Amino acid sequence: MWHYCKNRHFRRPLTKLYRFYFKKSCHSPLRKVASVARSRAFRDKEGKVLLEGRRLICDALSAGAAPQMLFFSAVERLQELPLDKLQQAKLIKVRYEDMKTWSDLVTPQGVIAIFSKPDASRLVFPKDARLQSVPLFLLCDNIRDAGNLGTILRCAAAAGCDSVLLTKGCVDAWEPKVLRSAMGAHFRLQVFPNLDWDEISKHLPKDVVVHVADNNSSFLKSPVSGQTENGTSDEYSESDSDEESNELSLPCLKPQVYFESWAQRSTALVIGGEMHGLSLEALRLAEETEGKRLFVPMAPGVESLSSAMAASILLFEGRRQLLLLLDKTRRRTRSKIF
Fold it and tell me: Where is the composition biased (Polar residues) (predicted)?
């Protein structure tokens, strides 16, 4: 067993004194680990996030995230990490059994770290991810399920999205279950959490077209006068008073099947939560940019797709259309040159 110092790696063997220090000092930091992992309020107040597992920690370090504290159960686990990027982190050895007391994993990997909450605009993303990205933006509107959000982020990274914007109604992007489901997506594309609707436009190009995904055939939780039972009617009845009409009427968005042309320039896609659906602000933004209501035809008797499934279908179709458009543009340029 070796002691790690900031300037030299594993220079001297641990004495009984060091073993005593590791054993006695781990209790309080482990409590802090549990607080970071389980409490969104604590994460927001302290500006810290917890990452568990070698791959996720390595992805964060590669992207330039700042580690503050790292727990390891064995020196072998520590040696699997890029030690040169852990110079400023406090390293603490703990028993594997102690890790299991707070970890919600069946088999903890024996290495966990507390990082300063990353700023998406300052992270350095992999070169291959940047080269494969397309002008496709994802807006998550009231996604409350952690597993769904993590899967959606993973799909967005795989589809080469430019960035992901999360409204304040979404589950915390740094929730442990979101991190596990996302499989490192937080460090492969920009993820901007906890945004007001007036902040959304600041992260989008001026010429963007915003489309909404009709993944659950319902725009608002409460029914609107003039809608059919499943909420997909394009006709709305007029109210007796102008005030009531303004409160109940919805933006009129033209429905369009997902495989028809809709991604022909910078494009944003809004995915709503399964329980609450899309917000009125999302529909208004789509209407302002002349966006469409995209839907996936399904066999009779199937109620709806999950938010994650709808996102994956639409994002990869959007990527296909944008790449096809890019290829056509390149061919035209070549023909003019030659």
Answer: 220-231
Q: How far apart are the C-alpha atoms of 215 and 218, rounded to whole Å?
A: 8
- Rounded-to-integer distance, Cα 253 and Cα 241, Å: 23
The residue segments making up the domain with residue 45 are 28-116
Domain count of the fold of the chain: 2
Other C-beta atoms lying within 10 Å of the C-beta of residue 119? 12
**According to the model, what pLDDT value does residue 64 have?**
96
Which among 219, 210, 214, 202 is positioned nearest to 286, based on CA atoms? 210
Same domain, 110 and 135: no
71 - beta bridge partners?
92, 112
- Rounded to a whole number of angstroms, the distance between the first and last alpha carbons of the chain is 67
- Stretches where the chain sits below pLDDT 50 are 1-26, 216-246
Residue 267, pLDDT score: 98
Strand partners, 277: 273
Bridge partners of 165, per DSSP, are 139, 192
Considering the domain architecture, whether residues 285 and 311 belong to the same structural domain is answered as yes
Say what the pLDDT of residue 130 is. Answer: 79
Residue 167 one-letter amino acid: T
pLDDT for 182 equals 97
Closest CA to 311 of 207, 182, 197: 182
Q: Which residues contact 43 (CB under 8 A, 6 or more apart)?
A: 36, 49, 117, 172, 174
Look up residue 14 and give its two tokens: 């641990």
- Token digits for 105? 């994993």
Same domain membership, residue 262 and residue 153: yes
How is residue 121 annotated by DSSP? T
- Identify the pLDDT of residue 17: 33
Residues 223-269 pLDDT 10s: 333 333 333 333 333 434 444 444 557 789 999 999 999 999 999 99
In terms of pTM, does the model score above 0.85? no
Strand 2-3 and strand 67-72: the pairing is unpaired
